[in-house]
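sry for the spam today, last one i promise. struct tokens for design, 266 residues
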């Protein structure tokens, strides 16, 4: 992605609340991801669709795609954090219904975090978090693609803005593409009227100083962290708050330092 493309995608997110990146995964990679999603779906009620980078190496490719990372960091900062990774399957006949905005679990609209001083208003002056939908299937107008209401991220209120249901349209995207949207943008799955499953992977992202859905540096398996290489920063090990005096704390690793010689008995 060149600089002009990057600024165009950022501008779309700022204006419409979302953008679509061209395919970041090959057909073969999507085939492999789909096979694993089918396998993990059998344990869906037991967390099978959570933290799926721990469950198949193909999903590690999703945070190694440099164009997607460049866009995420262009919006949230160079030290943006991966907040989770979830599988998604919308089966024939599923989907449809209402819309929602994200952020109520660990984001700025978490009910117990909203204060009297907030006046029931969301933060809209800056993009606090992003969600990304990796299209493992083609997203079409009839197979359960995500609906997004353009411009709805500008509304400060916590209730769905008037007219959002009418303006929300399914986002058609080629297999392997990535839908990137502001968590304030109202959205929801459309009904899958096709005869095939719609597959996707959801990757939410946060600013470095926000709380993630998981303590990612501890939730990720050691071998996953090792393979992440220079992208390991996205797991937020350096964002873990010290649990002891700072001179004893390894800020980069998010853990206590090894005790100096002679301090083992203290």
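last one done:
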């Amino acid at each position: 992605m060149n600089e002009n493309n990057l600024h165009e995608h950022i501008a779309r997110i700022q204006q419409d609340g979302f953008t679509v990146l061209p395919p970041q995964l090959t057909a073969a990679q999507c085939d492999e991801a789909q096979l694993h999603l089918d396998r993990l779906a059998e344990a869906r009620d037991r967390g099978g669709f959570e933290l799926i980078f721990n469950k198949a190496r193909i999903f590690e490719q999703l945070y190694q795609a440099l164009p997607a990372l460049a866009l995420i960091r262009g919006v949230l900062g160079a030290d943006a954090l991966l907040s989770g990774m979830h599988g998604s399957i919308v089966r024939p006949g599923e989907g449809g219904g209402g819309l929602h905005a994200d952020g109520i679990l660990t984001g700025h609209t978490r009910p117990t975090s909203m204060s009297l001083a907030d006046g029931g208003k969301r933060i809209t002056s800056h993009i606090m978090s992003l969600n990304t939908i990796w299209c493992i299937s083609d997203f079409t107008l009839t197979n359960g693609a995500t609906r997004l209401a353009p411009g709805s991220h500008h509304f400060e209120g916590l209730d769905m803005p008037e007219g959002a249901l009418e303006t929300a349209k399914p986002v058609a995207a080629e297999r392997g593409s990535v839908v990137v949207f502001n968590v304030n943008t109202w959205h929801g799955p459309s009904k899958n009227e096709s005869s095939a499953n719609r597959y996707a992977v959801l990757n939410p992202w946060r600013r470095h100083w926000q709380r993630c859905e998981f303590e990612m540096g501890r939730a990720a398996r050691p071998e996953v962290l090792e393979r992440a290489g220079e992208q390991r920063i996205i797991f937020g090990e350096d964002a873990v708050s010290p649990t002891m005096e700072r001179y004893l704390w390894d800020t980069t690793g998010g853990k206590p330092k090894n005790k100096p010689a002679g301090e083992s008995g203290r």
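DSSP finds six helices and eleven strands in the chain. ok im logging off now
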